Amino acid sequence: MRLFSLINGWALRNDYADALVRLFTLFTIPVLATLLAALLILVPRAPGVRSRPRIACAALLSLLGCIGVAAAVNLFAARVLDCNILSPRPFVTHAVNTLLVEPNDNSFPSIEVMIAAALVVLLWAARPRLLGWLLPVAPALAAGRIYCGINYPVAVVAAFAMG
Q1: Bridge-partner residues for 88, per DSSP?
Q2: What's the start-to-end Cα distance of the chain, in Å?
Q3: Which of 13, 18, 70, 161 is the most buried (most CB within 10 A)?
């Protein structure tokens, strides 16, 4: 909780930083998905890179896996632990600096960070030279979600590892 309070405590101090983090948090996944689609459809395949159908199948399986993990956690919480919400969002249970408000569902795991981590790996498979640019994207999204008051650190770290 201290790490969350430290990172989220920086929110609402600088309007420009808040706007930048809010935009990054909202548009990272659509931009990564569009970049992956463009690399698979429009850009010629680089030598030594796996085939496009394999990467497209891996993308589909990764997306289904991320959704499956989130659904399994929700099902486990409902059936085994007998609670509707395993880990509520920080803004529901604590006084936080909230920049974005999402539905009051589970905070754990952060499906957005999970999908972003999977997309970064898929983009790396499609274009290995992009690794230097892509490597900080998923951790930055994870920090942005904590900064915005949407997820706890444990939720984004676990999602990053699962992604």
Answers
A1: 106
A2: 23
A3: 70
Q: 8: which residues sit within 8 A by CB, 6+ positions away?
A: 90, 96, 97, 146, 147, 148, 149
Please, which contacts does 32-36 make with residues 24 or more away whose CB atoms are closer than 8 Å? 32/116, 32/119, 32/120, 32/123, 32/137, 33/119, 35/123, 36/119, 36/122, 36/123, 36/126
Instruction: Please report where in the chains the tokens 């990467």 appear, as a residue.
Output: 55
Residues of the chain with pLDDT under 70: 46, 49-50, 102-104
SS3 150: coil
CA atoms within 13 A on the CB side of 75: 6
Comparing CA positions, the residue from 34, 32, 27, 36 lying closest to residue 57 is: 36
| Distance (Å) of CA 112 to CA 46, 47, 160 | 29, 31, 9
Q: What angle do CA 148, 108, 73 make, to 5 degrees?
A: 155
pTM of the model: 0.82
Tens-digit pLDDT profile for residues 45-74: 767 766 778 888 888 888 888 888 888 888
Q: Is 151 exposed, middle or buried (0-12, 13-18, 19+ CB in 10 A)?
A: buried
